[in-house]
Amino acid sequence: MTGGSRGIGRAIAERFAAAGHKVATTSRSGEAPTGVLGVECDVTDAGQVDAAFAQVEQANGPVEVLIANAGITKDTLVLRMSDEDWQSVIDTNLTGSFRVAKRAVRPMIRNRFGRIIFISSVVGMLGSAGQVNYAASKTGLVGLARSLAREVGSRGVTANVVAPGFIETDMTAVLSDELVAEYKKQIPLGRLGAVDDVTAAVEFLASDSAGYITGAQIPVDGGIGMGH
């Protein structure tokens, strides 16, 4: 999986490793949880992506489940957003996901089995002031997954999207109590989500039980994005 050094990505890696899977994560630092193969990789560099896959395949065998989680934010209002602010987020969040999916899918087709899971965001459907770059990148993952699902479904490969909402992580921990209370008012379940809520959805989509689910966007957002 990409983006596995911290936050939700790290928790996903830990969950899969605890379940007995051979897990490898990529990040720019190469840091990974204990028991997980950590590979240094910048997903905006096609050469690094190919080299990272080769390293993982040599250590763990063919990649059967790909979780594309690497993502960054560069938030600012559109009138202040530079071309670099826009392009760097698109390059990492959307183009990076395309690169790793393209590299993973050929062996999956050959083996007639594969699970590709893109980590999006409720922001991709709802929009968010100051995040036109991030929201566009996360919405793009839905079109990427659904088109890919149509291309490779006949070969036993699924492609799905998990769209978390407001989840209790280091990023939300710095928000003020007032802002968190305001978010909770908008969430039908009345609370922020837990990291385990997201990891459970990802684990399900990677399982045999989800073999007939493809092209789906699974919201893990307490209901805030319903209808989108």
From TrEMBL:
Q: Which SMART domains match?
A: PKS_KR (SM00822)
Please give the start and end residues of each transmembrane region.
Answer: 116-136
**Ketoreductase domain span:** 2-170
Pfam families membership: adh_short_C2 (PF13561)
Molecular function via GO: oxidoreductase activity, acting on the CH-OH group of donors, NAD or NADP as acceptor
Gene3D superfamilies linked: NAD(P)-binding Rossmann-like Domain
The organism sits in which domain of life? Bacteria
What keywords does the record list, in alphabetical order? Membrane, Oxidoreductase, Transmembrane, Transmembrane helix
NCBIfam families (alphabetical): PRK12826.1-2
Give the matching PANTHER family.
3-OXOACYL-[ACYL-CARRIER-PROTEIN] REDUCTASE, SHORT-CHAIN DEHYDROGENASES/REDUCTASES FAMILY MEMBER
Protein's UniProt name? 3-oxoacyl-[acyl-carrier-protein] reductase
Q: Which organism is it from?
A: Microlunatus soli
